[in-house]
Amino acid sequence: MIFSSITFLFYFLPVLLIIYYLVPKKAKNIVLLVSSMLFYFVGEPKYIFLMLVSILVTYIFGLLISKYEKHSKILLTVALIITGSFLVFFKYFDFLIENVNLFLNNKLDLLHLALPVGISFYTFQMMSYLIDVYRKEVPAQKNILTLALYVVLFPQLIAGPIVRYTTVVKELEDREHTFEKFSKGVTRFTIGLGKKVLIANVIGELASIFLASGDRSVLYHWMYGIAVMMQIYFDFSGYSDMAIGLGKMFAFEYNENFNYPYIATSITEFWRRWHMSLSSWFRDYVYIPLGGNRVSKIKWIRNIFVVWLFTGIWHGAAWNFVVWGLYFAVILLIEKILLKKYLDKMPKIFSNIYTCILVMISFIIFNGNGIKDISENLLGLIGYNGIPLVSAESIYYFKSYFIIFVLAIIGSTPLMKMIVNSEKLKKVSNVLEPVFVVIILLVSTAFIVDGSFNPFLYFRF
Amino acid sequence: MKVKNIIITALFSLITVGFLIMNIAIEDKDISLEERRKLAKLPEFTKENIFSSDLINKFESYAVDQIAFRKELRSLKSLVNVKLLGQKDDNKYFEKDGAIYKIEYPINYSNLEKTTNLLKNVYDKYLKNMNVYYAIIPDKNFYLEDDHLKINYDELKELVNKKFTNIEYIDIWNELSLDSYYKTDIHWRQEHLEKVANKITTSMGNEDLNSAYEKQNVGKFYGTYYGQIAAEVEADEMYILKNEIIDNAVVYNYETNEVLGVYDTKDTNDKYDIYLSGATPLIGIKNPNVKNGKELLIFRDSFGSSLAPLLIEDYENIILIDLRYISSQIIDKFVEFKDGQDVLFIYSTMLLNQNILK
User: Fold this and answer.
1) Could you give the ipTM of this predicted complex?
2) Residues 6+ positions from A419 with CB-CB distance below 8 Å
3) Do A434 and B4 touch (CB under 8 A)?
4) Strand, helix or coil at B134?
5) CA B145 to centroid of chain Cα atoms
6) Burial of A109 (0-12, 13-18, 19+ CB in 10 A)
7) Cα A145 vs. chain centroid, distance in angstroms?
8) How many helices, marked H, and strands, marked E, lie in chain A?
9) How high does pLDDT run on average in chain B?
10) Of A215, A403, A450, Cβ closest to residue B73
């Protein structure tokens, strides 16, 4: 079940809200737990048991790590291996076999395993819980149902953000429900829904049209590159907004996952603004334990490559994701060693353009379907192979999608937020906010009802 | 601030719970007249399919199809998409000068190859000793002068011509104009087909058509494009052409064994079905006014239904064959192929660009 669906908006969510707000406080967690399990089950009926087993393992080892301090390191290692092995097996086994088969005469059979939905997200959440217990940042959760709720809570279960146990531990036990939290949650959810349905899906359709078309021109390639950039951002950040908004509706406060990454003036800054829950996870649980930048230069470079290899491969079991991750590793190193001082001195518009172009290239790699496809789409940006500058089809779609592009570009900056929150317009904003919520909700519903394009981009995660 | 929070909470609850109640309370519909299709039904929740991840997709299809105010929501989407977001088409539909069009683009070379191969095989198998002709009906986008995407019509004609080397081509494109088509439908208007019919019949060796027609208004026609896009478009007026020949013609529906007239006034979802009962695999027209032994076979799509009545004049018998509904492998079980028959392949560019013939 995805958030931008009629089933979720007008069946699951209203029924859940009614039950949740009618039951007494003591029962609210159970309601959330059962509904989250149901939410997961309807989309992933076969592998819900895998998630339940992982939760059980996490629960038991959390208690053991907490109780047996002397052996906590070994216990943590075993726990991480067990929880991680599920992820590795289901996500990477066939990828490993495919690559091994390149060197074998007698090919090994692939298992054709379906990736359990959300496994990367919930596995990382469980791992972070275990590590935080080991580090004594948080006591082990003695109530298995509360721990289960942390893992399966439906707002962030299948598409993030990766919520740390420390962020929500207090709210799991006790949280205050207010109109203010709920309404802020509604507004945030609605913004996310609008981003996903009205921008991401619409501009994503252009990317699909390009890929299905035989027509090629420099203009068309640039349109495709920007469309992919915008689709991924608005889909992912929209989903995070919906998750954060839903969390607030149930009185949970999640951390932000995106902070206007397309205004960054360096790739270094970009990754402080993009998918922050993942980058901070790798920073806290891989980069820093490896020594971070407080080691020799060689080891520091190693640490960067390890983190970015993992970051790439986390996104999917295919070589383009590996290349994508390592691409950023190289650029980050170049920035840190060489470019930073120039980027800092440069007018921001230029350093922003530099960043956006590099990010666009990265997403063309990310979205690519094989080396040939990726090279064609990259080289097409510079008119390689004699493709024309424009074509009738590209001009048609440029005109058709021009307003969407403008809205997407504006929407990817904090301009609207600044306008809405400005002192002069605050009173007007307060009056218009309910109107905005209703309009976006209804228009998004209309687009879901009549749209044929509503992809779930996270099936590889 | 507090009032705002309560208002937002109330509005959100009203909308989500309101739609929930309406979706449950309002009876499910079987079909959508605007969309010309059956609507999804509530899937069964059985022991077997409850563990299938497909069940949620089926439920979502049902929820989307049966949502309250579906028609109004679709109109809202179309309005926002075109007027606010500036999209040049909405799900490939667009409105221009009070008429609705659907983008037919690009040429699907694979489909075109498969379709023309099938028709060529029909020619090779059954029709070699007959007088065989073909015509292509342009979709109305051809006559529209604007920047919406269109297929390369010359290229399509050339590709078909390369396949149909032994078949004489009848060019009817100059006999039509934008006005020859309905504003709210893909089809051409019968009352604008006299020149087309004459061009075809004379190309097949017949004399100019003599008959004059009486034009009878059969009411408003809300074509297949009506309601696909939020636009201020009026319904078409539909006409049928009558004369003594058409009135006396006897139509036999091979599928239903019914004996009918040329114009079938049975109530259906598509008023265009008035012409020879709409979608039928095999239909015959006998002309009692003529005893010349001449027979015409028309391999056609739906456009042929409104054209065929205007060709009756020169033939004792016309058989219309729609290969969308009957396999080309078995037509000889139902149709007698005789040397010297006239045969006409007449298909629209839209059909040629699909792969739906059997």
Assistant:
1) 0.90
2) A425
3) yes
4) strand
5) 23
6) exposed
7) 26
8) 22, 0
9) 92
10) A450
